Amino acid sequence: MEVPVEFVSHDQTKTEIQMLGYSYSHLDKNGRLSEKRTCFLTILYASPDFIDNRRLRQDRRLYFSYFRIKLNTPLIDPRSLLYKKIWLEEELVHVGNTSFIINSLLKSPDRRNTLAIAKSLSVIVDKETHKKRQLPSWFKEKFGHIKQEPVKFEIPEVPRHWNCKVKISHNDIDLNKHANFSAYISYCQDAVYKHQVQQSNLSWFNRLGVEEVEQSYLGEAMEGEELSLYVQQTSSPGAVFLVSVEKDGVIIVKTRLVYTSALSPGLTSQL
Fold first, then answer.
1. CB-based contact 74:209 (threshold 8 Å)
2. Each residue of 245-264: pLDDT tens digit?
3. Given 73, 170, 218, 223, which is the most exposed site by the fewest CB atoms within 10 A?
4. pLDDT at position 148 over 90
5. Is the pTM of this model over 0.90?
6. Nearest-CA neighbor of 245 among 213, 212, 217?
7. Cβ neighbours of 254 (radius 10 Å)
8. CB–CB of 264/197 below 8 Å?
9. Measured between alpha carbons, how far is 101 from 265 in angstroms, rounded to an integer?
10. How far apart are CA 138 and CA 136, in angstroms?
């Protein structure tokens, strides 16, 4: 899915983008802004033009290895954002041997409200073996001085108790020919919902919205493959869920979803 954008400004490590963010099709069943859409917009350009993305991909692939996003959209009246241009600010903040980190900031049309904050770790892999490769020398020469504390992956595995299955469809595949990150967000949210149905918690759960998404990618899955999703609620009566995604008994994605009850009413209840 392409989003029309305007690159307002950029330098060696930063960029500003203005783009159309939300329409009525991006509202959930409660009339609130879709968190999947917000995640998509916030890390849409996690490999922005200033890093010479086309040159970087000439003989390599670029995979997401990890991302974490905090959402403020559950607290914002959707009517203030529909069919309006929003702002995305991105900055390259760390360069390693095989990966780099981009910080992203999604803002409202007037820039007064922060819609989301994200950190994403992209890793370079070989096109044939899909194993990690060194960043090219020209990239290190240009950006190698950019360093910060490395990202720590602390999403625990989930006990093998409750689980559900999902089969990867053609619509979930990206340019790298594997399931894309937004598909995994949907899989995990659906698994949490089914878990709450089984626990008879829907009256409580339906009042919640996603406040934070954290995912660590350990492997990949292709069209037609079946995945098992194991769910655990880590605090009660809180709303933090861990989801482990397995393929053939091996964990390929670990997810943490944080839900909040401090929500705006949404459009449907305001009309």
1. yes
2. 999 999 999 999 998 875 55
3. 170
4. no
5. no
6. 217
7. 22
8. no
9. 35
10. 6
pLDDT (0 to 100) of residue 197? 93
Comparing C-alpha atoms, which of 97, 123, 133 is closest to residue 216? 123
Tokens 């459009």 belong to residue? 267
**CA neighbor of 140 nearest in space, from 110, 201, 98, 172:** 98
Question: What is the helix (H) or strand (E) element at residue 124, kind and residue range?
Answer: strand 114-126
Q: Six-digit token pair at 207?
A: 């009042």
Question: H helices then E strands: how many in the chain?
Answer: 6, 11
Contact 245, 231 (CB under 8 A): no
Name, in order, each residue with C-beta under 8 angstroms of 208's C-beta and a sequence gap of 6 or more. Answer: 239, 259, 260, 261, 263
What single letter denotes the amino acid at residue 14?
A: K
Q: Which two tokens stand for residue 60?
A: 């390599």
Q: What kind and span of H or E run contains 15?
A: strand 14-20
Instruction: Set out the domains of the chain in order of their start, with CATH numbers.
Output: 1-152 (3.10.129.10), 155-271 (3.10.129.10)
User: Left, alpha or beta for 249 (phi > 0: left; psi -120 to 50: alpha)?
Assistant: left
Token readout for 173 is: 């595949």
